[in-house]
Amino acid sequence: MPAVQELCDREKRLREKLRELGLKLTEKLPPPGAGLYANVGSYSRGKIITAAITNARSAGPTCSSHWCVNEYQQDVIYCLEHVIEYIEQKKIDVKNCKLLFTYGCEELDLLLEKLRNTIEAKQQKKAVTKGGPSTMQ
What superkingdom does the record give (predicted)? Predict the structure, then answer.
């Protein structure tokens, strides 16, 4: 659970940094269960995933799985960490970037709470089962 919490916190920090750098455009993608190749605006989920995988491979193992469409004239997709770096280095104009996301920050918090509740329920159920039924003589 701490690793999931850290991932969500990191996502929020990176999104906030992008806002501070002037990123204004966003596009919410449908959740994975809505269909891998569902069309989203001018993008398809398959196209986004393919581009993200390609860019992550070229960036190395430290690249995150979060995306920001950059230079939408060129249709290039970067992870949040790298797009922040390129914006700060003035290699990319933030005005030509769009953040793509599936869950908003509030939704991430709700998903974390749901995960916590599920884990607690399973642990409680396991503890009750471990005690086993009492034996009567």
Answer: Eukaryota
The angle formed by the CA atoms of residues 5, 77 and 28, to the nearest 5 degrees, is 60
d(Cα 85, Cα 87) in Å, to the nearest integer? 6
Q: Do 77 and 53 touch, CB atoms closer than 8 A?
A: no
Q: Is residue 33 part of a domain?
A: yes
Does residue 36 fall inside a structural domain?
Answer: yes
Domain interval for residue 43: 2-120
Q: How far apart are CA 77 and CA 86, in angstroms?
A: 12
- Give the number of domains in the chain: 1
11-39 pLDDT tens trace: 899 999 999 999 999 988 877 666 544 44
Considering the domain boundaries, does residue 17 fall inside one? Answer: yes
Measured CA to CA, the distance from residue 66 to residue 80 in angstroms comes to 6
Judge if pTM exceeds 0.70. Answer: no
The answer to the question of residue 134 being in a domain is no
